[in-house]
Design goal:
The protein is α+β, with helices and mostly antiparallel strands. Among the domains are: 93-126 and 155-203, no CATH class; 298-441, no CATH class. The chain has 18 helices and 18 strands. It has helices at residues 2-12, 55-63, 94-104, 109-133, 140-146, 149-156, 159-166, 170-176, 192-201, 214-226, 269-275, 285-291, 352-355, 393-413, 429-435, 450-454, 478-493, 495-503, and strands at residues 18-20, 32-35, 38-41, 70-72, 76-81, 87-91, 207-209, 230-232, 237-243, 246-252, 257-259, 263-265, 298-307, 319-323, 346-350, 366-375, 421-427, 467-469. The strands form six sheets. A seven-stranded mixed β-sheet has the order 6-5-14-15-16-13-17. The protein has a three-stranded antiparallel β-sheet with strand order 9-10-11, with no helix packed on it. A two-stranded parallel ribbon has the order 1-8. Strand 10 and strand 11 form a beta hairpin. Helix 4 runs antiparallel to helix 5. The mean pLDDT is 96. The structure holds flavin-adenine dinucleotide. The site of flavin-adenine dinucleotide has 35 residues, from helix 1, strand 13 and helix 17.
Amino acid sequence: MGGMTTAAMLSKLGRRVLVLEQHYLPGGFTHTFRRPGYTWDVGVHAVGEVTEHSISGRILARLTDDRLRWTTLGSVYDAFHFPDGFRIDFPDSPEAFRHNLVEAFPTQAAAVDAYLAKVREVATGMRGYYIARIVPPWLAGVADLALARKARRFLEQRTAQVLESLTPDPRLRTVLASQWGYYGSVPSRSSFAIQAMVSRHFAHGAYYPVGGSGEIARTLLGSVERAGGWTRTSASVEEILVEGGRAVGVRLEGGEQVRAPVVISAAGVVATVRRMLPEGLRGAEWVRSVESLPPASAHVCLYLGFKGDVRSAGATTSNQWFWETWDSEADCWPVRAEGALDRASILYCSFPSLKDPSHDPGAEQRHTGEVITFVPWSAFEKWRGTRWKHRGQEYDDLKERIKDQLLAQLLERMPALRPMVDHAEVSTPLSTDHFCRPISGSIYGIEPTPERFRNPWLRPRSPIPGLFFAGSEVATVGVAGAMMGGLLAAAAVEPLAALRWFRGM
Ligand SMILES: Cc1cc2nc3c(=O)[nH]c(=O)nc-3n(C[C@H](O)[C@H](O)[C@H](O)COP(=O)(O)OP(=O)(O)OC[C@H]3O[C@@H](n4cnc5c(N)ncnc54)[C@H](O)[C@@H]3O)c2cc1C
């Protein structure tokens, strides 16, 4: 999303852009994959702020020449199910959200209001933080002090710390932080700013791309092509070429060199410095500094194909979160190669085909479902380096057990789906590593902790002239975060032209 946004934006500003993608499909986490009769998204379930009511929505519309359409997930976009039958819906308006929280926690109305006020405050403060990201390196320190000052307070505080200061009710704290799955860091570790930004992001509900998430690449890269640029897939960058201290192009796997006046890496900042910088530059202080930032956890996803009336079995357009605990620190499902698997404590379930008004279920009523939970990369790391689809029996057995366990847990919650299950397969962090190549198979790249936001090098301008960074690691996680990271990169490359372009928004 970051790279495609930069490419589309620079195309609008008159540049000719070449997009290089290692996968055989473009899109990164917005790509889709198929099996006979079914198509799934791999990283897009709910995106906020994409309508004409928000600036990001207007920008996206302009970048895609109005070709990308979004559809609402409805009045409830996330439904949370906690132990003891406690359910709370996250609706599509701030007033309804407040109402649901106060109804569930009637003695905590003041805490709810204080939380919502803090969320608004962070959103305003973050503007300065982003502007400070794009100034030239020699101004960065001053800009951080002057412009990002307001945001700094929230970036430095951890979510748990802020929530504890607001309410003594542990259940309310868990509910308020229950969307941490959208940014991949538990309350004791995450910066409160990211919690607030995600809360704000979904304040007016969530949306899904009409036609599925593959439409995002089709429309953004279409704009690149119409401006004379193009996209090459199965084009893996092996090294960024640096001559006389300046980035001048890239070398692809196979040896081909591509030269360009500007090189923008949207592969993730850590992945870029670790894998693509020339050997001699990898020991620099700034490189070691970004490399020290830990990644968010990895994930597994169960991809399901159904034949039948899934709505009658309880499937809806809203995402269903099944929590088996009130402990919001319970992050990873501890999977292991041997023995029985424990239960996963959190399941995120989504039925993408129901969200898409252009989906034709056909006579057999074909629908798709996805079940996601977090897992540690360490449980899969030993198979890195094995070949996709040829990773060995032990790995295949583990995948099978993961599939069985996730499916069993879903069917306990929605038993009427059982006879409709027609297809089930699991992706692991190694699938993520193979198709998107984030560090440590991470679901969201660098973990959004205070340390990450404090790092002075996560900016679109790298210390190497001619080399820029785009994507979620220079802004924040998610489709909209990566888009912001893409816009920042384009603005760093073409500041004046970008400013003129933004003025028209
Ligand atoms: C399971 C899951 C669910 C998600 N759900 C949501 C959601 O509901 N809402 C939401 O907003 N966000 C969601 N996200 C997050 C969102 O998809 C990502 O944060 C965002 O798309 C990341 O964009 P990016 O551009 O930063 O990185 P990426 O999409 O990772 O892009 C990096 C690109 O670089 C390419 N690359 C890497 N190395 C090389 C190389 N050497 N040569 C060439 N190309 C290379 C990769 O193949 C990839 O295409 C989800 C993510 C996952 C995994």
